[in-house]
């Protein structure tokens, strides 16, 4: 279904694509700073259309980005242009790339060159970096992981293309109105994106709805033909992803939705000016907003349209590329490895089958062989609500041909069970792709599992739980399919860029090898008790905390003491991540300080950040509680100097880059067995924060690497959680056994933090007393114990800094470079240079 754009459409896109090349070429002077300075001035004048005197900060950013983009293109053109034997195609609904300027400068080795070039022009690099909008094309860990993986693949010279959606508005901009979350559109594209190239030649038609007909092509051979009722165009926009030291450049291809006809001219001329563009509005809605609310039927349909839109465009694109390079689509699995990042692109299973069957006339057997040897699936969650299912009625209406293919896949799958003597109805119901327990729904996780060559979890615990819980019966049918690939983070972004001071210390201590080989960080162990090094380390941390204190004061008006322990929990607001447990412990600590004001309390600043989904009422109420507790605590003179509470609004990648290097304590306190991996835990530990956490996700592996004495573990493990949940009165029993917890819950429920609305937080406290799905009450006392152990540890600075340095030194295994090598060797079968 490749679509050839109209000449007018092509001319419009060609003009956009060429505008960045309109500056006249300049000969190199041999002086890197002078060359870059002149390049920036050229872009400012001939592309941005400004003089230095009239340029705004955003203009300087655009000019600098365009100048650096030229150097990325040069690096790409200078690289090996041979067709790789195999490419990786990474399909993800989210790519939380954040700001790209620092990545580009660092990986090209041009940070100081750019700083000097801008300074010659009277501009500070920090100002230019701050003018770049965050590309919030993701919700949290899933999207940030995809961004880390793309950077690592480029750094390892693994040929790869990432595929996603070019959302006009990424994750919403969060503000706090008297502690209540308010959402506004994130307008990151309001002044364009200087990093991207529009690719009008890569435009594909994506169909929806319609009907399916049949025709006989030969005796006994029937072909089905889908006639969509609606067609939307997917237009490619490419963002280059430069690897470390500029040795390799990959592409992030993001799809923008456009209407086939921008306006119904006859309708417009007839006077219906709004109706004439309604089709365009419907089409463009697909790439308008990341994660539109699915609380309505229309919202659910838009979500499914988004998922199919980007998956179909990506598959059409990669098949076109393969056929152009190799000729025969039957060899696709030999030269392409497709990774489905969670269930969002799981529709790739029937879509790839459809394309192979109908566009390339393969037999069912050949198409299924290619599909199941090309696709791979990463599972990111065990939570039932996060394992996508779609109503059969919606699928049949929106994607009728795909539903036919899914039915056939399922029929053959269940027939195979019968051949092996598995006729039990209960067994067949658990392995079926169609869930019929509460209305008929397509299980997208089952579909992805069945269509993939390999299925991977993202931490050792998560993978074990996948085998024993959500995919237990499917795993029994194919015991070799599930493998583990623990997540990782790119050290270039989360150490070199986010914490240049610590990076300099590491380079001075163990040499520049640490920039290329994360394993070299192990050399810092020898300095953990070196008095001079520890003193410099503590001074570095103090400077980062002072910088964060300025941000907190600027954004919230709250003054915090950099000498206090900075206790940080920044992540998506969700009940299983248990920000509420942290808030309740804060209330209990507040009560304890009030009861014994003359006790020598360890000064602590509790810092929260994160966004709640717009329709997630409980999560938004947790934010409100945190803000109301902050107001009461911060205004109480009896706890002054001992406890402060801050909720930083509009959490983002760039804000995380400021918070993480300043954190002393990293809160990773999800209910054991519910966090697949986490990557924030890795970023904090890499930067020297000590972790307080449960035995959940990658916390287990972090403990193994940093040593149990350098992490604070509390609470039930996953087996303990399951056992305790079987007890009908566990919440009531836990509250009765903890007067401290009971008092904190009573204070919250009484309206102490909401006197104008005394019952405001009763939904939270009542839920804990009667249901407590995430076992906050059970883990509370051990969490309190761990926090007081942390208080005591903070009073011994030398021992604390020793632990912090050892955390950094022992985190090398959590590099996403290691993750990508494992994927390449064991899942994708791609050679790593």
Number of helices: 35
**Based on helices, strands and strand pairing, what is the structural class?**
alpha/beta
What would you say the CATH architecture of the largest domain is? Answer: 3-Layer(aba) Sandwich
Query: What integer value in Å does the Rg equal?
Result: 27 Å
Binned strand content: 15-25%
Number of domains: 3
* Molecular shape: globular
Helix content: 40-55%
| CATH class wording of the largest domain | Alpha Beta
Instruction: Return the average pLDDT rounded to an integer.
Output: 94
* Biggest sheet features: 9 strands, mixed
Summarize this, please?
The chain is 48% helix and 15% strand.
Secondary-structure map with pairings?
Layout: H1 7-18, H2 32-48, H3 57-78, E1 87-91, H4 101-108, H5 111-120, H6 125-130, H7 141-155, E2 160-165, E3 173-177, E4 180-184, E5 197-208, E6 211-218, E7 221-227, E8 230-242, E9 249-259, H8 265-269, H9 278-284, H10 297-326, H11 332-335, E10 336-341, H12 348-359, H13 364-374, E11 375-378, E12 389-391, H14 392-398, H15 400-419, H16 425-431, E13 434-435, E14 441-443, H17 444-451, E15 454-457, H18 460-468, H19 472-477, E16 482-484, H20 491-497, H21 500-510, H22 513-516, H23 531-556, E17 565-570, H24 579-595, E18 604-609, H25 617-634, E19 643-648, H26 653-659, E20 665-668, H27 680-686, E21 690-693, H28 699-706, E22 712-713, H29 718-725, H30 730-736, H31 739-749, H32 762-770, H33 776-794, H34 797-809, H35 816-828
């Amino acid at each position: 279904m490749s679509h050839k754009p109209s000449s007018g459409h092509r001319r419009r896109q060609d003009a956009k694509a060429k505008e960045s090349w309109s500056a006249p070429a300049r000969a190199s002077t041999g002086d890197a700073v002078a060359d870059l300075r002149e390049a920036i001035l050229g872009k400012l004048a001939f592309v941005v259309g400004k003089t230095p005197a009239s340029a705004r900060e955003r203009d300087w950013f655009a000019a600098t980005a365009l100048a650096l983009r030229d150097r990325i293109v040069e690096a790409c053109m200078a690289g090996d242009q041979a067709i790789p034997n195999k490419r990786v195609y990474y399909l993800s609904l989210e790519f939380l790339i954040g700001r790209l300027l620092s990545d580009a400068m660092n990986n090209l080795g041009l940070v100081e060159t750019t700083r000097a070039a801008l300074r010659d022009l009277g501009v500070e690099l920090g100002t230019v970096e701050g003018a770049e909008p965050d590309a919030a094309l993701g919700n949290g860990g899933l999207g940030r992981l995809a961004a880390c993986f793309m950077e690592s693949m480029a750094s390892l010279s693994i040929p790869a293309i990432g595929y996603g959606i070019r959302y006009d508005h990424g994750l919403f901009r969060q503000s706090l109105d008297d502690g209540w979350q308010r959402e506004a559109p994130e307008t990151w594209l309001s002044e364009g994106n200087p990093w991207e190239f529009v690719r009008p030649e890569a435009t594909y038609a994506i169909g929806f709805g319609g009907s399916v007909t049949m025709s006989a092509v030969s005796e006994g051979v029937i072909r089905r033909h889908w006639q969509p009722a609606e067609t939307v165009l997917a237009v490619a926009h490419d963002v280059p992803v430069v690897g470390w030291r500029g040795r390799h450049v990959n592409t992030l291809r993001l799809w923008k939705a456009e209407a086939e006809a921008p306006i119904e001219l006859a309708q417009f001329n007839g006077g219906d000016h709004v109706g004439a563009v309604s089709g365009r509005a419907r089409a463009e809605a697909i790439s308008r907003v990341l994660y539109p609310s699915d609380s309505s039927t229309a919202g659910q349909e838009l979500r499914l349209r988004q998922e199919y839109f980007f998956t179909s465009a990506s598959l059409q694109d990669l098949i076109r590329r393969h056929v152009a390079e190799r000729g025969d689509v039957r060899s696709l699995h030999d030269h392409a490895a497709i990774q489905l990042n969670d269930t969002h692109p799981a529709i790739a299973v029937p879509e790839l089958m459809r394309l192979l069957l109908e566009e390339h006339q393969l037999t069912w057997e050949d198409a299924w062989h290619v599909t199941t040897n090309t696709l791979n699936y990463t599972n990111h969650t065990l939570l039932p609500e996060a394992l996508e299912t779609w109503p059969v009625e919606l699928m049949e209406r929106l994607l009728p041909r795909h539903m036919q293919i899914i039915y056939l896949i399922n029929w053959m799958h269940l027939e195979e069970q019968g051949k092996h003597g598995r006729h039990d109805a209960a067994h067949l119901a658990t392995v079926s792709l169609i869930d019929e327990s509460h209305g008929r729904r397509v299980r997208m996780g089952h579909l992805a599992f069945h269509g993939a060559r390999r299925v991977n979890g993202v931490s050792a615990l998560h993978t074990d739980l996948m085998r024993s819980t959500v995919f237990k019966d499917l795993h029994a049918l194919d015991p070799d399919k599930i493998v583990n690939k623990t997540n990782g983070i790119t050290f270039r972004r989360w150490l070199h860029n986010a914490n240049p001071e610590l990076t300099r210390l590491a380079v001075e201590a163990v040499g520049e090898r640490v920039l290329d080989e994360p394993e070299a960080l192990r050399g810092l162990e020898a300095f953990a008790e070196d008095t001079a090094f520890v003193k410099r380390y503590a001074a570095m941390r103090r400077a980062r905390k002072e910088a964060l204190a300025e941000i907190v004061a600027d954004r919230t008006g709250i003054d915090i003491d950099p000498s206090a322990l900075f206790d940080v929990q920044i992540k998506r607001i969700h009940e299983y991540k248990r920000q509420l447990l942290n808030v309740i412990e804060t209330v209990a600590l507040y009560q304890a300080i009030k009861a014994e004001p003359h006790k020598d309390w360890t000064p602590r600043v509790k810092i929260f950040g994160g966004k709640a989904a717009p329709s997630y009422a409980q999560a938004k109420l947790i934010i409100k509680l945190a803000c109301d507790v902050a107001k009461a605590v911060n205004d109480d003179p009896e706890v002054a100097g001992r406890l402060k509470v801050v909720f930083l609004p509009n959490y983002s990648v760039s804000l995380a880059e400021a918070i993480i290097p300043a954190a002393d304590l990293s809160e990773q306190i999800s209910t054991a067995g519910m966090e697949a991996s986490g990557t924030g835990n890795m970023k904090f530990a890499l930067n020297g924060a000590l972790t307080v956490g449960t035995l959940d996700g990658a916390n287990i592996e972090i403990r193994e690497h940093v040593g149990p004495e350098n992490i604070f573990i509390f609470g039930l493990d996953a087996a303990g959680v399951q056992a305790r949940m079987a007890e009908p009165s566990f919440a009531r029993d836990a509250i009765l056994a903890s007067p401290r917890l009971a008092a904190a819950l009573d204070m919250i429920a009484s309206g102490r933090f909401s006197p104008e609305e005394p019952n405001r937080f009763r939904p939270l406290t009542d839920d804990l007393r009667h249901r407590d799905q995430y076992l906050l009450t059970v883990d509370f006392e051990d969490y309190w114990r761990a926090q007081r152990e942390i208080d005591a540890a903070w009073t011994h600075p030398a021992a604390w800094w020793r632990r912090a340095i050892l955390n950094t030194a022992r985190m090398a295994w959590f590099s996403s470079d290691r993750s990508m090598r494992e994927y390449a060797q064991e899942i994708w079968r791609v050679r790593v240079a």
